[in-house]
Amino acid sequence: MSIAAVEQVDDGLWSAIGDPTRRRLLDLLLIAGDSTATTLSEQLPVTRQAVAKHLGVLDRVGLVRATPAGREKRYRVNEAQLARAVAQLSSVGSAWDARLQRIKRIAEAIQRTQQD
Amino acid sequence: MEYGTIEREIYVEASPEIVFEVVSNPDHLKEWWPDDARYQPTPGSTGEIVFGDRDAGGAVVPFTVVNAQPPHTFSFRWTHPADEVAAAGNSLLVTFDLTPSGGGTLLKMTETGFREMGWAVAVLEQQYQEHVTGWDFHLARLAPYVATLQVRS
Q1: Which of A50-54, B3-7, B89-93, B124-128 has the lowest mean pLDDT?
Q2: Which of A10-14, A59-63, A67-71, B141-145 has the lowest mean pLDDT?
Q3: pTM, two decimal places
Q4: Nearest CA in chain A to B18
Q5: Parallel, antiparallel, or unpaired: how do β-strands A34-36 and A72-77 relate?
Q6: Rounded to whole angstroms, how far apart are CA atoms A70 and A56?
Q7: Which of B88, B90, B87 is nearest to B121 (CA)?
Q8: To the nearest whole angstrom, how far is the Cα of A26 from the nearest Cα of chain B?
């Protein structure tokens, strides 16, 4: 896979997980194991159509997998891809946490020096 | 965490003037982030930050100062292609907002633009991060740094 293709996948992953409704859907799917758009929409303040659309976004980036179930599809979380998304999100966040800790230490050291 | 944005807040027991220097001055920047930093801390200034050794396969990353209002705010864009002007869509925007608080400073950091940029840069930086994330390294580096400051004053 080319670097460009990897970036596209990862951009999509970020966008997919960045939406609060889609994060809620992932939560519900993790609890339920697997569900259809109909059962998921009963637990959320959005229409079945909206849920189906969000599931489509999650499906395209590989965060959920769909299997046919009568006239509907059953969705379940692709845990490997979810772990990957979570790792990416937390690595960027923790990198900033570490940088800010260093900023704090440096600034406080200078402040102490000036007070002496 | 909201769509495409990372936000962090930290309380620093130092004046906004000192914190502003630490987040904006390239000599300080390389104490807490890249291995080298070359730019003027003034709006519109372009330069670069370097991870690893510039002459031995290190990563040179474009860096453009967007706003600098001491001691209130400092913002910059990074990761844009070297031959392009930094703008929304081709770079990550980092903003530091400083607020005086109880004798110290409340430092707020916001980074936006992941949606457009993807993760190439996170991967890139991670390759060079192993040697800067360990506390041993920082403490080792910080002690001589503080000693230098004391010599100066």
Answers
A1: B124-128
A2: B141-145
A3: 0.63
A4: A107
A5: antiparallel
A6: 18
A7: B90
A8: 16
Given an 8 Å threshold on Cβ–Cβ distance, is A110 in contact with B149?
Answer: yes
Distance CA B145, CA B38 (A): 19
Q: Select, from the ranges B55-69, B81-95, B138-152, the one with the highest average predicted confidence (pLDDT).
A: B55-69
In contact, B92 and B112? CB cutoff 8 Å: yes
How do B73-78 and B5-12 pair as beta strands?
A: unpaired
Residue with token string 């692709």: A78
Q: Give all strands (DSSP E) within A1-116, no chain letters.
A: 34-36, 64-69, 72-77
Spatial contact of A60 and A12, defined as CB atoms under 8 Å apart? yes
Calpha distance A64→A82 (Å, rounded): 9
3-state secondary structure of B84: coil
pLDDT per residue as tens digits for the range A67-84: 998 889 999 999 888 877
A19 CB neighbours in chain B (<8 A) are 3
Tokens of residue A106, six digits:
């440096």
Burial (CB < 10 A; 0-12, 13-18, 19+), residue B19, is buried
Residue type, B12: V
Amino acid type, A103: I
Report ipTM (2 d.p.).
Answer: 0.74
**What residue in A sits closest to B108 (Cα-Cα)?**
A100
Hey, which CATH number is domain A3-115, 3.30.70.890, 1.10.150.40, 1.10.10.10, 3.40.50.11440? Answer: 1.10.10.10
- What are the residue ranges spanned by the domains of chain A? 3-115
